[in-house]
Write a structure and sequence with these properties.
Elements: E1 9-14, H1 25-30, E2 35-39, H2 51-65, E3 70-75, H3 77-88, E4 93-99, H4 111-120, H5 124-132, H6 141-153, H7 156-168, H8 172-175, E5 182-187, H9 195-203, E6 209-213, H10 219-222, H11 224-239
Parallel strand pairs: 1-2, 1-3, 3-4, 4-5, 5-6
Helix pairs in contact: 2-3, 4-7, 5-6
Length: 241
Amino acid sequence: MPIPDDERAVVLAIPGTLCAPAVFRPLAQRLAGQVDLDAVSWMTDPGPWDLGTVADRLAARIKRRHGAPVMVIGHSTGGAIALRLATEHAGLVAGLLLVDTGAHMRGHGDVDAILAALATDWGPRLHASVLDRSFATAPDPAFRDELLEYAAMVPPQAALDALRSQRDLDLTPGLATMDFPVTVLHGLQDPTRTPDQARELAAAIPGAWLRFLDTGHTPVYEHPDGVATELLALLARRQKR
């Protein structure tokens, strides 16, 4: 049964680098009438695009649009932005669903190669390479085209700012201060981050749940039913507090 508009939880959804907000569309469809999903296009907003500045802009968005703490889903680089938002603006976050992300990039062995490619080989071929490795199963061709069209609109400096900032940040010290529900969700076929990195992240956050799905780097698109289940469980934990 749909929940009345004024009773539905707001969920701020932050996609990863070069990833369109549309990646959350299957999840939004699964949760229609239960939550209000606010997916953001932080890479096409005006710069700069370092994680701290983006988190500050999202804090202003929460205050302006929602006026109360919201649940936050962060995918990949969006997860690092979500962590920065939670540590710098804790009063605006009601809970976190962290998807295939981490508090640092140690062990993310190819970040410097990616940065070099962004600086020298920007264009459709690079966009396709970054996006295709984000899915264990190839997305629908029309949706892949939509993702590539979005990536073409992103300023190259946005990707460089974000990934350089993410590479240089270690958000681990702030994890122990989180006093809201957190779930760490990880795709077992992710080629960029390992299950052990997900375990490390969950272990550093008091009371965090750790869940795995048989997907690649983008469970929010590849397994929306599983992600919806975990998000609803996270909301239930919040309501019991």
